[in-house]
DNA sequence: CCCTCTGTGTTAATCGTTTAACATCGTGCA
DNA sequence: TGCACGATGTTAAACGATTAACACAGAGGG
């Protein structure tokens, strides 16, 4: 009962070499069909269910799995429509090549990580049996990214990176489009809500800005570029991009005596939270205050959110293809974005 | 460049045994700190990033990962709130023990699977490097379940099963509660919408019923039991549980000349689709037609859906714990459910 | 009749680690 | 002085498979 059945035990029981057994499972054409079925019969009889996955991975060097790093906490991730769309895209491509998706949790960054936490998380990254990985939205110097490239695993990223593969969008350009749109409407008091580990609602100092997600930085830069010279841009933390933290940020922002006339959020989820809070406070979104989102997930359409559409699903599909078939895919791709104007933005109110 | 750095190369470069290098990475206390840091220095210098994952898995017999089987297509799965809640629960527990989640795609059953598809899917199951797996909603004789138990991997299921671990709900009892609720309201023309591979909207024959998901069967049985003797229950396919297929089923159902007065759906997603279609057709849900869902996902509250709440997140947490720590967890758990009455159900209209 | 070729099966090296068991060497204690 | 012991390294045997390279036999061709 306790003894494990291996390729060898089957071979001995059948009176053949281990090679034969291996071929019986992997290369039917290498064996006479008579021999093959005899071996399979013996295997079944012994309760052998095929070659061990780990051993096979070691020997062949292939894992038939690709990893995805999550730095936000998996539980949160499953509620983020952006993440879900990306995973959906990845999965779509992977399903066609019997490849699994390995979700690797990395300690979420909340006010800095203890060394121990980082070490534990890295351990998960090191132990993952995968052929490649996607790291979406992580900086070059994130420990997980480092660990992955140290393992010299194929890695695909979503931000521009010196070496290595990536599929990205032009965040800066997208930011400029948002900025121009708001500028055209006459806004010069705008708040940008970014996802950040710091307390939701609190201001993000220029020093902090360097620590933001790259995409946040680029979008922010774009917005600033497109706004007229006199415009004032304040940056506040939207927490971890969730509905709850978005509401906190919105509440802080709308309570300010000099409340902004426009609020540009880093994601649709955040923007929808802002809309919700504003509405509850009796503000007419698109009149009294304008709100923009990012991504154009389904939520955006139903909320009437002005946002920037990015082809998330396509991004996922492409990332997966790059990992599965590196020779027939480009190293770097920039996907198009598009400003989608809906009812959540309007001309600046005259007070 | 092409040559791979291994534990051995590091050992040779450092002039120590491979055991020492292994200890340097795994058991700091086994080495003098001086030796350890020397080894780590050499490793860094050589660009060695730690023991190989596959080799380590083979040797230790642990993968630090658990699998989840998806028979619905991963892309769909990421849009199903039930699945997401379950994954969230699993992830929550796993995050504490640096364990990854492996999402294993299995060919979705659409009008029967070809042998080749099954074989390919099984291959993914066999190749997954995992310590255990959860199979939610699959029958005992599903090929994936068989493959997993053949591998003699710890397996946790969501339906009652002779041997093996499971965390379930009393689907039959839940069905009875729905049935009783509808009966109390005077309904005897009820349609049950189940997720099924067959064409959305078409009738499910008694013969087909045997092929339904176990949970569907049990809920159906419960509903039938609780309805009065004269009641008529028709069963229709809701497709794969998605919004779109739910709408199709609803359209077919509401167009029928003898349209049911109550529609009990297998999931909130399906029920919400029914509500949507009914509303569009000018029917007042809760008056002209009653609709019930299942699960009580967030969507249900915002739709005003009468439904049965089940603790999905808790289910996930429990399943993960059962896999991680079998010795300190029960083999079988039944979680409580609760009928949540909202506005989507009401007394049968008098025509 | 010899030679090549195809179809089947075997031999044996290798993938990169982990870890029980053993060796060695001060050290503290009786 | 003698001895048990903790601390620190090493030896070497697995873990369970894959796959070149080789061997052999019968078929077919010249």
From TrEMBL, chains A, B:
Location of the HTH lacI-type domain: 5-60
Chain coiled-coil ranges: none
Protein name from the UniProt record: DNA-binding transcriptional regulator, LacI/PurR family
Molecular function in Gene Ontology: DNA-binding transcription factor activity; transcription cis-regulatory region binding
SUPFAM superfamilies: lambda repressor-like DNA-binding domains, Periplasmic binding protein-like I
PANTHER family: LACI-RELATED TRANSCRIPTIONAL REPRESSOR, TRANSCRIPTIONAL REGULATORY PROTEIN
Keywords: DNA-binding, Transcription, Transcription regulation
InterPro entries for this protein: HTH_LacI (IPR000843), LacI/GalR-like_sensor (IPR046335), Lambda_DNA-bd_dom_sf (IPR010982), Peripla_BP_I (IPR028082)
